[in-house]
Amino acid sequence: MTRSSFSRRRFLKSSAATSVAAMTPCFFNSTQPISSEFRCLNDKAPIGLIGAGGMGTGNMKAASEYVDVVAIADVDSGRAGKANMELSEGKADVYEDYRSVLERDDIKIVHIATPDHWHTKPLIEAMLAGKDVYCEKPLTLTIDEGKLIRKVQKETGRVVQVGTQQRSQFRQFTKAVAVAAEGRLGKIKRIQCAIGAAPVSKAIPVAEVPKELNWDMWLGPAPQTELRNGRETTVDKNGKKKRARRNNFHYEFRWWYEYSGGKLTDWGAHHIDIAMWALAANGQSTNIVSIDGTAKHPVEFKDGVALQKDRYNTANEFMFTAMTDEGVEIVIRHDTDNGCLIEGEKGRIFVNRKKLVGKPIEELKDNPLPKDAVQKVYKGLPMESQGRVAHWLNFLHCHKERIEPISDVHSHMTMLNVCHLAGITARLGRKINWDAKTETIVGDELANSMLARPYREGYEIEMNALATSQ
Predict the structure, then answer these.
(1) Each residue of 434-462: b (16+ CB within 10 Å) or e?
(2) Which CATH number fits the domain that encloses residue 137?
(3) Looking at residue 33, what is its pLDDT?
(4) Mean pLDDT, to the nearest integer, of 395-413?
(5) CB of 203 within 8 A of CB of 230?
(6) Cys-Cys crosslink for 192: which of 75, 263, 268, 331, Cβ 3.0 to 4.6 Å?
């Protein structure tokens, strides 16, 4: 199937459904739940899925009541075919090249759930093609990619939701931010983000590329290299042995700096997001001026480059402290209970995906938050569902109303810059001073060169080819 073609059958079916929906009256008012906006007869939004792994298919299943997957793009034909059966009973059009999805006029929304190194390019090209986008976190591999994403979003006005779903999926995070915003903690002095240690591996052998995988396209903008795949016997904390998968593609991409930032941009993109959200909600600066600390890697580094190419190379243990221009410490560590410990002059709270605790929380029993406190920090947007679907309902509502969603690209990049700077500090083993206004590293030429990475020839961002007036 060529990039420019798509199923006439699917198009006609979609058009017919739209006509039926147009004849079916739907009445909404401000007291109805947000999900009612999308429950009209045949009122599902056609959507294109780019990246059909576990996250992409899981998200589409969660949002299945409100979206209709009409196109799937993945460089692994096995994954694409499986997702097609699970999400659309085999009725979606399947492509290897994501640009075939972006060229379709019947698709106004795309979901990008590719490996991290494949986020920026299709996201920018989707915005230029007139699409609204729900893109998984982290949006970028580098700080300079974030600058370009923010620029294109401002110029196109597209609605982009980042997959930092803790803002919607787990209501205790929003409540924690509301507690801070209502002054219950006083001025915040320190926030600790515990994000867990990363796995390590022994040498992983070079392996034959699976016949269903386009390896060159999977690598995309990243450097050309050989596919590695194997198994390794590991022992858990209870002494139980198991055979663990070790490779440099699909899920395991996140333990290679070539494709990810490791735990710093994986779990870090979740908890540091909560930390920066709480600071901003409390009226405090989120501008970072420096970051320092130590990290342990499973390989040696020289000038920020891993010397061994046959095993995981992201930091597996670490302790960093980022300082804001108001003297707030943001600590990023691999140990202690996963979650965010927010410490203020009046008290402290701890929040993760299972709990929200602390004396200021206990005091809510006798001195509850104002009824609108949580919705205020949620940008005044409708709040109905919890769970995975909640972040999607927020996105679909903002797509419909043409407004900024709860996880916007601008606040996301403010916090993701902290994650990226921690990664540079880890690889160089020295303190970094940061100028938030110019978004440059001060007085360190090598560190400053790591704000960007070259794209492999043939996989550069297409800034003009897909531009549209939509």
Answers:
(1) beeeeeebeebeebeebbebebeeebebb
(2) 3.40.50.720
(3) 59
(4) 97
(5) no
(6) 331
Residue 224: inside a domain, yes or no? yes
> Would you say residue 279 has pLDDT above 50?
yes
Give, in order, the Cα–Cα distances in Å from 261 to each of 320, 329, 409: 15, 21, 18
In a domain? residue 340 = yes
Q: Report the C-alpha gap between 302 and 357 in whole angstroms.
A: 43
Q: Provide the pLDDT for residue 235.
A: 82
Q: Look up residue 253 and give its amino acid.
A: F
- DSSP calls for 336-348: SSSEEEEEESS-E
How many structural domains are present in the chain? 2
Instruction: With CA atoms as reference, report the closest residue to 143 among 253, 291, 315, 261.
Output: 261
For 424-470, the pLDDT digits (tens) are 999 999 999 999 999 999 999 999 999 999 999 999 999 875 455 44
Beta bridge partners of 162: 135
Which tokens sit at 365? 């029993």
Q: What is the full DSSP assignment across 61-94?
A: HHTTTTEEEEEEE-SBHHHHHHHHHHHHTT-SEE
Beta strand 132-135 with 160-162 is: parallel
**Residue 339 pLDDT more than 90?**
yes
Q: What DSSP designation does 435 have?
A: E
H or E, element range at 333: strand 329-333
CA 131 to chain CA centroid, nearest Å = 18
For the question of whether the overall pTM of this predicted structure is more than 0.85, the answer is yes
Residue 177 in tokens: 């931010």
Q: 323 in a domain, yes or no?
A: yes
Domain limits at 58? 8-167
> Under a CB-based contact definition with an 8 Å cutoff, are residues 82 and 226 in contact?
no
Residues 127 and 177 in one domain: no
